[in-house]
Amino acid sequence: MSKIDLRLVSKKKQMSQKVRKMFYHAYDNYMTYAFPHDELKPLSKSYTDSLSELGNLKLEHLPQNYNGSALTLIESLSSLVIMGNYTEFERAVHWLSENLTFDVDARISLFECNIRVLGGLVSAHILATDPASRLVQGEYKNQLLTLAEDLGRRFLRAFDTPTGLPYAWINLKYGVMENETTETSTSGCGSLILEMGALSRLTGDPRFEAAALRALRILWSMRSPLNLLGTTLDVVTGEWIEYSSGIGA
């Protein structure tokens, strides 16, 4: 091996160790100061329940005893597997399977809950059941997929609209609340196919993929002659609210 190759190997090892150190600095402090709430506030060593608070600063329909959904833990599951920390992964899976429930009176963003919670559960399940993973021989028994399927069923209520485009906000326990806003964003109704499609393929239930794909196709049919999409639209009327296009949501 040449000197250049040796330097590259050494550099790669150093970067790997640095990434691992950064991950555990964040993860360990979250588990110490914020778990089971959603996110760590590092300066105050406190927490925020971002899944329900995002865009919902008045905290409507949020029970006083709501303690978050362990969002950071869910989002860390796949990293734990990739880093080979199967012991901590299985401990996290056990806690989630015993404690996490989506049957809570909390108003959440469908978009955020999809990419962060459903996506986190589905991706970690795929890694956990990979034949190359030692987890197949461990304690994992599809608990994450069970949680993901429960969440996906709750999502389906958001798609019960005249257009098939989903509401941006739903209550996890009761579905779409009375007088809920009918305004949503392009990404909020058009980017759900990856997670919900994967959920259908893993569970054999076609409803998740069908709902997300229908919304995506409806959204695409609303494009301009330049093949551009607006920014926000009404899920009941199917009309654009904001016509401007950009690289944001």
From TrEMBL:
Protein origin, superkingdom: Eukaryota
Coiled coil: none
SUPFAM superfamilies, per the entry: Seven-hairpin glycosidases
CC per GO annotation: endoplasmic reticulum quality control compartment; membrane
InterPro entries to which the protein is assigned, alphabetical: 6hp_glycosidase-like_sf, EDEM1/2/3, Glyco_hydro_47, Seven-hairpin_glycosidases
Pfam family membership, one: Glyco_hydro_47
GO BP annotation list: carbohydrate metabolic process; endoplasmic reticulum mannose trimming
EC number: 3.2.1.-
UniProt keywords, alphabetically: Endoplasmic reticulum, Glycoprotein, Glycosidase, Hydrolase
GO molecular function, one term: mannosyl-oligosaccharide 1,2-alpha-mannosidase activity
Subcellular location: Endoplasmic reticulum
Family: Belongs to the glycosyl hydrolase 47 family.
UniProt protein name: alpha-1,2-Mannosidase
Organism per entry: Papaver nudicaule
